[in-house]
Amino acid sequence: MAETIDDKIKNYRTAPFDARFPNTNQTRNCFQNYLDFHRCNKALSARDQDVSPCEWYQRVYKSLCPSSWVGKWDEQIENGSFPGKI
Amino acid sequence: MAHPTQLGFQDAASPVMEELLHFHDHALMIVFMISTLVLYIIVAMVTTKLTNKYILDSQEIEIIWTVLPALILILIALPSLRILYLMDEINDPHLTIKAIGHQWYWSYEYTDYEELGFDSYMIPTQDLASGQFRLLDTDHRMVVPIESPIRMLISAEDVLHSWAVPSLGVKMDAVPGRLNQAAFIASRPGVFYGQCSEICGANHSFMPIVVEAVPLEHFEKWSSLMLEDA
């Protein structure tokens, strides 16, 4: 990519168009970015690498997902009852 | 907003709604012309003393009244499809706002930068200040910057609702567990009203939507103020 991930995070305006989710139903877009954030964190910290690139996914899911969903999922992750695979 | 005895659409506040308005004028004009023609023919048939008992077939008129309707339909379909594809274009939004339907109010979340969220309740009739609109005004308005593509993500917390603002040309169902995307651009500053458009219980008629479009600087001031108050 011409722009580094740090630049993209710094110039973040809102979640950009994602060609994987071109239609009206953006539910999966929100969920996928939430999953990707946690997976990114898990993968990078397992190798003792800097987790700051994962912030992109966090910015996107925070833009897209209703706060009540995020709150519920965070609680489920703490409880160990989160249904997604991280 | 709508005015009493209004028949047509509200004035458009977004480019898409303008297109829809003009298309509606075009289609309605065709419909009026056809209806007038048919009515004229009926009256002419019914009030004439002339009769002809020996008409069998006529190639010419059959061709005309097959080809002409086909042409008219194409004349309607082409602008219609143009607008359909226009509405489907990939846009690059500047701002994402979530509108979540509850029984019986909307809550708005602006979470691109900070976590701004607030509820928007209808102002009860007995609490209206002078000049406010009955069943339409709310305590908090959804403020947006003008001339910026906005991405709306609509959902619901309990039952089905629908987020609609006619002058912006937006209506999108609010479904629990689902996130529906709609987009608009507010072409001019103003206050635009809408009402919940899916039956959702006792106070379905009493959870309106108010969008206030302002210049960007005013929007930034408003969002800082709202964050402080929260």
Automatic annotation (TrEMBL), chain A:
Pfam families: COX6B (PF02297)
Keywords for this protein: Disulfide bond, Mitochondrion
GO cellular component terms, semicolon-separated: mitochondrion; respiratory chain complex IV
Record-annotated disulphide pairs: C30-C65, C40-C54
Subcellular location: Mitochondrion
Chief localization: mitochondrion
Domain of life: Eukaryota
Family: Belongs to the cytochrome c oxidase subunit 6B.
Function: Component of the cytochrome c oxidase, the last enzyme in the mitochondrial electron transport chain which drives oxidative phosphorylation.
The protein, known as: Cytochrome c oxidase subunit
Source organism per UniProt: Amphiprion percula
From TrEMBL, chain B:
One GO BP annotation of this record: ATP synthesis coupled electron transport
PROSITE patterns, per database record: COX2, COX2_CUA, COX2_TM
Keywords annotated in UniProt: Copper, Electron transport, Magnesium, Membrane, Metal-binding, Mitochondrion, Mitochondrion inner membrane, Respiratory chain, Translocase, Transmembrane, Transmembrane helix, Transport
Pfam family, one: COX2_TM
Domain Cytochrome oxidase subunit II transmembrane region profile: 1-91
A cellular component annotation (GO) from this entry: mitochondrial inner membrane
The Cytochrome oxidase subunit II copper A binding domain, residue ranges: 92-225
Cofactor: Cu cation
Transmembrane segments: 27-51, 63-85
Cofactor note: Binds a copper A center.
Bilayer topology: Multi-pass membrane protein
Domain of life: Eukaryota
GO terms of molecular function: copper ion binding; cytochrome-c oxidase activity; oxidoreductase activity
Subcellular location: Mitochondrion inner membrane
Catalysed reactions, semicolon-separated: 4 Fe(II)-[cytochrome c] + O2 + 8 H(+)(in) = 4 Fe(III)-[cytochrome c] + 2 H2O + 4 H(+)(out)
Keyword Transit peptide: no
Family stated for the protein in its record: Belongs to the cytochrome c oxidase subunit 2 family.
Function per UniProt: Component of the cytochrome c oxidase, the last enzyme in the mitochondrial electron transport chain which drives oxidative phosphorylation. The respiratory chain contains 3 multisubunit complexes succinate dehydrogenase (complex II, CII), ubiquinol-cytochrome c oxidoreductase (cytochrome b-c1 complex, complex III, CIII) and cytochrome c oxidase (complex IV, CIV), that cooperate to transfer electrons derived from NADH and succinate to molecular oxygen, creating an electrochemical gradient over the inner membrane that drives transmembrane transport and the ATP synthase.
Record's protein name: Cytochrome c oxidase subunit 2
Species this protein is from: Amphiprion ocellaris
